[in-house]
């Protein structure tokens, strides 16, 4: 059979059919990488990343953020591993040889946080493997999440907030989101905030401007009926004008539709916030 060329307009890759013995060997290499990746997630072993990724690798995360370079990739995984224990399963859907130095691999994944079984993220991945000094490594990785539960959406928002990724935080919101701060909170003066821009300018910008630091801690997510997620957490913060620090118990009630947040209601110990604001 003659080798055939198929032009894939979306990916602009030329796929070349190879003899079955070569394909079998390459399938084994792909599965070897997948198994190493699974073990890395399970063991939280950062040292494995040197064998998994090229020095100039890049990752498009499922939230749309990009990470480039092995050092930055390691930093991202370090942050993930510090937040808990995880497991992942991978299923290969398609493999195609681009040339002798590249393999295109697509598949699906199921990502689970071990201490929060309901925190499950499903999706698909598209990887380009590159041969480096005789070893196959991940050169480009693209991840696309399938929002199988609402808690995963909220979890992604909190993780983006923690690293200052405001575009991803706003991207999780529906264009018509209705946001309400707790009654008695100084930021409740604009209730309800309608739309991501109103939340950004009326809440986030003011919170950042009013505090030396403002972090969310001990976040626990509870999947509820009617497309709602209850988050219990604490605010650890310090008011810039008064120099007073506070640690307040908080609850956030999120409402979602089609993977987007359409409503938010805050519940917080507003006395602690008010006391911190008094000079």
UniProtKB/TrEMBL annotation:
Endpoints of the signal sequence: 1-25
Database matches in SUPFAM superfamilies: NTF2-like
Location of the SnoaL-like domain: 155-262
Domain DUF4440: 31-138
Gene3D superfamilies: 3.10.450.50
Keyword terms of this UniProt record: Signal
One Pfam assignment: SnoaL_2
Source taxon at top rank: Bacteria
InterPro entries attached to this UniProt entry: DUF4440, NTF2-like_dom_sf, SnoaL-like
Protein known as: SnoaL-like domain-containing protein
Organism: Gillisia limnaea (strain DSM 15749 / LMG 21470 / R-8282)
């Amino acid at each position: 059979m003659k080798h055939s060329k198929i032009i894939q307009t979306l990916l602009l890759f030329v796929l070349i059919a190879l003899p079955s013995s070569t394909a079998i060997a390459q399938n084994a290499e792909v599965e070897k990488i997948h198994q190493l990746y699974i073990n890395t997630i399970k063991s939280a072993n950062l040292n494995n990343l040197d064998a998994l990724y090229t020095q100039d690798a890049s990752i498009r995360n499922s939230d749309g953020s990009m990470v480039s370079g092995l050092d930055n990739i390691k930093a991202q995984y370090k942050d993930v591993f510090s937040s808990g224990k995880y497991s992942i399963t991978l299923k290969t859907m398609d493999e195609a040889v681009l040339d002798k130095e590249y393999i295109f691999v697509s598949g699906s994944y199921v990502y689970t946080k071990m201490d929060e079984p309901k925190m499950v993220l499903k999706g698909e991945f598209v990887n380009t493997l590159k041969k480096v000094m005789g070893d196959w490594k991940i050169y480009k990785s693209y991840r696309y999440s399938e929002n199988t539960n609402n808690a995963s959406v909220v979890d992604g928002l909190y993780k983006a907030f923690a690293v200052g990724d405001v575009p991803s935080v706003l991207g999780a919101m529906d264009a018509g989101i209705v946001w309400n701060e707790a009654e008695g909170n100084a930021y409740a003066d604009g209730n309800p905030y309608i739309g991501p821009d109103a939340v950004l300018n009326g809440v986030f910008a003011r919170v950042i401007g009013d505090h030396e630091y403002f972090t969310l801690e001990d976040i626990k997510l509870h999947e509820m009926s009617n497309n709602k997620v209850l988050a219990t957490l604490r605010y650890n913060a310090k008011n810039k004008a008064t120099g007073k620090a506070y640690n307040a118990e908080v609850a956030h009630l999120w409402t979602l539709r089609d993977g987007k947040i359409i409503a938010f209601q805050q519940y917080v110990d507003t006395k602690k916030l008010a006391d911190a604001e008094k000079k």
